[in-house]
Amino acid sequence: MLYCTCCIVPKDVLDRFANDRKLSAELRKAAANSARISDSLRRQRLQAGELTALTHAAGAHLVELAAAPKVTVYDCKNTQTLPGTPVAKPKTAKDGTAKRTFVETTAVANFYKQAFGRNSIDNAGMTMMSSIHFGTRYNNAMWNGTQMVYGDGDGKLFVDFTNGNDVIGHELTHGVTQHTLQLAYSGDAGGLNESMSDCFGSMFRQWRAGQDAKAADWLIGHDIIGPTARAKGFNSLRNMANPADKKALAPQPTQYAQITSGMDPHYSSGPPNLAFCTACKALGGKSWEKIGQVWYGALTTSGPQPAMTMPQFAGRTRQLAAQMYSGQAMVAAAVDKGWKQVGL
Amino acid sequence: MVDRIAVERLGGFAGFGGPGSHLRSRGEIEIDRLSAADRNAVDALFATRLARSTPTPDAFRYRLTRHVGDAVHVTEVAEEHVPAALRDCVSDELA
């Protein structure tokens, strides 16, 4: 069991506190416990990295071992203790959040399988694990390296984060990125990392609705906006079709030239989001059928590229569009139009 | 002015505190109100440069500004490093 509420300070400091006779026995014990938890978390992060490398190398064989992922849901009961209590039968749970999380996570697994031939997060049938009711009035959802975590929202700015199936697709895609391009979470790579999650989260929402690129609203987080934010005229977190949209709670830049070092990845993902949306709309049809295939190809066939830049990613998608659809020049033209729209 | 720590929560899936963001999450706590364990933990956060681990996608970060007398010190840390008393002092709001 992992305790996210613990305060993880550097191990040498914790060890010093644990052995400091001037401190009370209670404080020394707390420091010693924190040092052990800190060690455990570090080991878990290292193991996650090693596992990612191993499955990446052995992938094709493992796919045959696990045909479909298991989907599990845990209830944090408004604490920040992970993973929480297992929900025995989430598919039929009375708790709407548990049931929705199970249904939509299973749907994401089906989406990746049917649209891209991918078997779960690691393409080897990895269990898709989610913890719900994390924290109190917690306005966030995240991927922590091994599982998804969802807050209930404060009921004012945001409602339950599992209400947005694009949010669920977004978080799971962080796992896919971890097992493929392994993009860092800063600089150009950080913006690409966030953009991958927005692109596949949005595609998943469109896939669930059976929408084509022109009918889709391309909004991220539309279904988790709370009543107070809606009353002020906000309708989403981000708008992939217009990243600078004033109705978005967190508007973004529209041009690659606007991106500078140190930007939050949720901000710098604006240009690649717009490039993807523009390409999909230019080509028409379902986003996941062709442009989505090109983006998936760039995500999964380039090997680990933690420091990949946006120009490099743009180049890779142009190359793949030409290769994958050599007899359909309109695909490469649509991809080109998308990147030119953002100055790449 | 009493010694205090101003706390701002940043990032997350929603992008709190970003350049164009309408979302802010801020709070403040008097240092005297912290437990001894939390004060020690805060001292460690400011005294030691935390090893940079891979950031957790969509996790919150916290910018802590400590005011002691006329001295002001700022540090920015991942949520997992922040004592609950500081995490819980912020309020999310539209800006």
Report on the structure:
The complex is a heterodimer of chains A (about 350) and B (about 100). Helix content of chain A is about 50%, strand content about 10%. Mean pLDDT of chain A is about 90; it is low at about 1-15. Chain A contains eleven helices and nine strands. In chain A, helix 10 packs antiparallel against helix 11. Chain A has three domains: about 1-65; about 65-165, Roll (Elastase, domain 1); about 185-340, Neutral Protease, domain 2 (Orthogonal Bundle). With about 350 residues, chain A is α/β, with parallel strands linked by helices. Chain B is an alpha+beta fold and about 100 residues long. Chain B has two helices and five strands. Chain B is globular. Chain B starts with a strand and ends with a strand. The model of chain B has no long low-confidence stretch (mean pLDDT about 90). At the A-B interface, helix 1, helix 2, strand 6, helix 4 and helix 5 of A face helix 1 and strand 5 of B.
Listing every helix as H and every strand as E from the N terminus to the C terminus, the arrangement of chain A reads EHHEEEHEEEHHEHEHHHHH
CA-CA gap between termini of chain A? 46 Å
Structural domain tally of chain B: 1
* The CATH architecture of the largest domain in chain A: Orthogonal Bundle
As residue ranges, the low-confidence spans of chain B are none
Q: Runs of chain A with pLDDT <50, length 5+? A: 1-14
User: Briefly, what CATH class of the largest domain in chain A?
Assistant: Mainly Alpha
The beta-strand count of chain B equals: 5
Mean pLDDT of chain B: 91
